[in-house]
Amino acid sequence: MKSTNLLNGAWKMGWIAVFLCFSMLSALGQDAVSTHGALSVSGNRIVNQNGQSVSFAGASFFWSNWSGQFYTAQNVAYLKSDWNATIVRAAMGVEVSGGYLSNPQAEKNKVKTIVDAAIANGMYVIIDWHTHYAESYTSDAIQFFQEMATTYGSYPNVIYEIYNEPINSSWDNDIKPYAEQVIGAIRAIDPDNLIIVGTPFYSQNVDQASWNPITNYSNIAYTIHFYAATHKASLRAKCVTAMNNGIALMATEWGTCEASGDGFIDQASTNEWMSFLQANGISHCNWSIFDKVESASALVPGASTTGGWGTGQLTTSGNIVRNIVLNWGTPTGGGGGGGGGGGTCSGSGTSLPALIEAENYCDMNGVQTETTTDAGGGQNIGYLDPGDWVRYQVDVPSSGNYTVEFRVASNQSSGQFELKTGSTTLTTESVPNTGGWQNWTTLSKTVSLSAGVQTLELYVVGSAFNVNWINFSSAGNGGGGGGGGGSTPIRIEAEDYTVMSGIQTENCSEGGLNIGYIDAGDWVAYQTTLPQAGSYEVRYRVASLNGGGQISLEQNAGTTFLGTLNVPNTGGWQNWTTISHTVTIGGGVQDFAIGVPAGGYNVNWIELEYLGGANRQPQPIAEIQSQVKLWPNPASDRITLLGFPESMTALAIYNLQGKQVLAQSLSGLQDHAKVDVGQLEPGMYMVRLTGGSSQPVLMKFVKR
């Protein structure tokens, strides 16, 4: 799974210039493209020809106009053979000195050298229009990508990155219109190869693109760039928001250091980012293959321009990245389970609910067993590395929610795994440092399973942990009608938020993660489905060293307050207690948030238990949403809203930072209202209509 066919790689290096097509035929399934074929976008994932989520790892070359000596076929071949790279990126400078605009043929030739070599070696390759101002050169971009699509559109290896890093460009007014023009030109020639679109502010604000994605064309993904010493959890939260909104991401450029490309190399943050990319099926290319004297460079000054670097010609960053790429989870041959799921076992399976001993798998890759000292004896599985997996055949009696408990041990805190069914990830769990390989703790998570016989896969994202058993029990499937409460509580792990501001996660002494570093003004939002409207007891598992914190349960972007609780001093950041209050909340899909009037506490989980109340059924939100119209959009001075129900009594407008910038009553206006937006700054805004028992109606508009 982690091996590389060196003989085949060497053969290709010797004959690439003459026998490009023959080399492709000679790959014999031992490379990424032979295994995975044409890439496409399915929901928020990039998938292979079999519809399996895939994640590839490799490197980006530096600006072509300043590093042309490294744009060699030998370097591409060496990245495959020595790094096990499955993807490379050719970053063609555009308007900069010596770039495409002033020297088009020379720069195209550099790009073609990389692309031809990647094709010969069965690798994916990104053709990058490397500029911060692409919309200023739209016609040039169209001409360039038309030529690339004509030359390479028939090769599944090729990925078009049409905008490297916008800086101050607006998504709605600049980036998206530019992208749609260039994509249209490419699609007229190449109807299906993957296209990657840059996102605002150095390709970091992926959430902004997700609010108004490109829908006229298929197989479109979006760029996320990060530098580990600068960008941390808050940028990953933007990625989560974007993926929750349904767009796929690719990290076409990232660094181990600060955003300047220099400075501190942050190994710990790099590891966190790699775990995140692996868990979410995001491919990546590290910046960069160059010998410039800066932290981001993979090569030391004077390094070979034709590969053969070994570890001696690699910088600190280069050695870190080589190790990451060398051991990345997506296999370059053999198909099967790594990263994408999809593998199945035969047989009737274990009927749930049941406790399954970890060693009683039906199939595995890379897993070993050993004697356990845990209660009950027997064996556990261990020696787990990223990309390893183990499968279990189960028979689920009825569709619904199940509590899954994982018995784990580790003397490190780098462990992470996914529980998958087919290509669907049911949950991603981090394994805490339990103090030893045989010091056991239990992680618990609620997942939704469909009825029937199926294969569940435990896929290893981060290494170094053991598993003794996995226990499945019914978690209940929501309250019934009427009645006097006592339903099964719905538990939400605090780290499973949809979006947040100012929150960080950390390993929890009760297993898994908790949220912490909570300060006044922070907030964290969640979504869940409640069985019906009425009274709920809401419980919070909290810890605090000093006390004095407050929890404010809110809805409608902080305009509806459901209740407030004081957080006591529990005697430590990992000394846990449960606090609760009773609130009235609607049924069906609910968005809510924890606001922080006063900070200084951690939260492990939240539970909601139905106590009773009117069994009201609100008008379906999709029905209301389809009735309400907003025009004009974009707008300069005023927007008009038509068709909202009389129960909608309030309007609020929020900017992209979640701050309310305008509010207006809708009472007595029946089904139409005019709203003056002339005072708002240009940009994108969210309109929220609220009132009655219905869910809020959300709409977006652009202020010119």
How many beta-strand segments? 40
> Which sequence of strands runs across the widest sheet?
3-4-5-6-7-8-9-10
Q: Which range does the strand content fall in?
A: 35-45%
Largest sheet: 8 strands, parallel, barrel
Poorly predicted runs are 1-29, 330-342, 477-486, 614-618
Please report the number of helical segments: 13
Q: End-to-end distance, in Å?
A: 53 Å
Mean pLDDT over all positions: 84
Shape: globular
Helix content: 10-25%
For the CA atoms, what is the radius of gyration? 27 Å
How does the helix and strand content classify structurally?
alpha+beta
Provide the descriptors you would attach to this structure in a database record.
704 residues; alpha+beta; six-stranded mixed β-sheet; disordered N terminus
